[in-house]
Write a structure and sequence with these properties.
Residues 1-29 are annotated as: Disordered. One of its GO terms (cellular component) is membrane. It holds the Pfam family ABC2_membrane_3. This is ABC transporter permease. The chain crosses the membrane at residues 46-72, 193-213, 288-309, 316-334, 354-377. By secondary structure, the protein is an alpha/beta fold. The protein folds into 2 domains: 29-59 and 192-379, no CATH class; 79-174, 3-Layer(aba) Sandwich (D-Maltodextrin-Binding Protein, domain 2). Helices cover 62% and strands 7% of the residues. The protein has a 4-stranded mixed beta sheet with strand order 2-1-3-4, sandwiched between helices. The longest helix has 36 residues, at 192-227. The two termini are 21 Å apart. The model is unreliable at 1-24 (pLDDT under 50).
């Protein structure tokens, strides 16, 4: 008995050409595979946990922003003050600089020794000890708590005080210079809530689904290869290419759906997303955000699929994928089209032509990645 010939790449093993045996139109097998993949997510505890965490972050975004911002910027909160001892040469100017910082209260001491004693006895939270050097410069020694959460808080406030002190000293010494220095720009008092929400929280919620999409693709394909189920496709009415594309459709398609849900929860929680002068402009901004997420998910999922086929071992593929994605996003952060910056500009509502051009470039990159994954699948031997 002669062996059954293998189907050509892209053709089905049963000889059908996109039609059911009864002659009716045949459902796209990629849609069927994608639905199967999405239905199987309920058994993936890690992915379900990641989705629940994202849901929690989006649903309680306002509370999280208040808490997290207060950690690194105590001036944004209420009822917290860093008591600071100030002593040494030119201590009056340094005390004035401390007074310019929100949630920071300065106390003038007679000498650096008494200020250091007050800090050691925990009567103050920090101490700033200034000394004038023979070169007519000021050196400031900062005493802060060691090894606890308060250290970060106090250091952040002390840094702001030192910047104010430096600005004041530059202004005082300008008259003694032979040439006039450039004027310093005015101090900008931006809202820490605004910056944290749109530069940290929104990109985090948008790109977490992207990482999940790639991980889901790697896990799904390596599991299929490990069980040998992909080899059965040679006698099934579906090609390996359609199977992989269906998995990519499920992974990359889920990411913008998640992102849209998170953006909706943010808006419901009072965080404006892509605010603009008209509803149409807002819709364009939101659509661009979702297109950005879909493009990034396509790149990451296609990369994961190629890695799974080249390195079918699940642990090795996940390790290479994780390192590769970190490197990819690290390189993107150094490029003019950093996805996080593009997302922040779209979310704030300050997108310009260059921003939309960057979105278009990322969409083109996503399509190219999917095409590349298709080539890898067609050239891969599943025997």
């Amino acid at each position: 008995m002669a062996d059954r010939p293998s189907p050509a790449p892209g053709s089905r093993a049963d000889g059908t050409d996109g039609a059911d045996r009864d002659g009716g139109p045949r459902r796209d097998p990629r849609i069927t595979v994608a639905r199967r993949e999405l239905a199987s997510l309920r058994s993936e505890k890690t992915i379900v946990l990641a989705l629940l965490i994202q849901l929690f972050v989006a649903a309680f975004s306002s509370f999280l922003v208040v808490g997290l911002v207060s950690l690194y910027d105590p001036g944004a909160g209420e009822g917290f003050t860093v008591e600071t001892a100030v002593a040494g040469d030119d201590a009056e100017d340094l005390l004035a600089a401390v007074g310019e910082v929100d949630a920071m209260d300065g106390r003038l001491y007679d000498s650096p020794e008494t200020a250091a004693d007050a800090f050691a006895e925990r009567r103050v939270d920090a101490a700033l000890l200034v000394t004038e050097t023979p070169q007519d410069r000021y050196e400031v020694r900062v005493l802060v708590p060691e090894g606890n959460v308060g250290t970060t808080v106090v250091v952040t406030q002390a840094r702001q005080a030192l910047r104010a002190f430096e600005r004041a000293e530059r202004g005082d010494r300008e008259a003694h210079l032979e040439s006039r220095t450039l004027e310093l720009p005015p101090r900008a008092d931006g809202s820490p809530y605004f910056g944290f929400t749109y530069t940290v929280l929104v990109p985090l919620l948008l790109f977490l689904p992207v990482f999940v999409a790639g991980s889901m693709t790697v896990d799904s394909l390596t599991e299929e290869l490990d069980r040998g189920t992909l080899e059965l496709l040679r006698v099934a009415p579906v090609t390996p290419t359609e199977i992989v594309e269906g998995k990519l459709l499920a992974a990359a398609g889920l990411a913008p759906v998640q992102a849209g849900l998170w953006l909706g929860l943010l808006a419901f929680d009072g965080t404006a997303v892509a605010p603009a002068g008209s509803a149409f402009e807002t819709a364009v901004g939101v659509a661009s955000l979702l297109a950005l997420v879909a493009a990034a998910a396509a790149v990451v999922a296609a990369t994961g699929a190629a890695l799974a086929l080249v390195a079918p071992d699940r642990r090795a593929a996940q390790t290479v994928y994780s390192l590769g994605v970190l490197g990819l996003f690290g390189a993107a952060a150094l490029s003019p089209v950093d996805p996080a910056n593009v997302a922040a500009r779209l979310a704030v509502g300050t997108a310009d032509a260059a921003t939309y051009l960057a979105v278009g470039a990322l969409v083109a990159l996503g399509l190219a990645a999917l095409a590349g994954a298709r080539v890898v699948v067609e050239r891969h031997s599943f025997e």
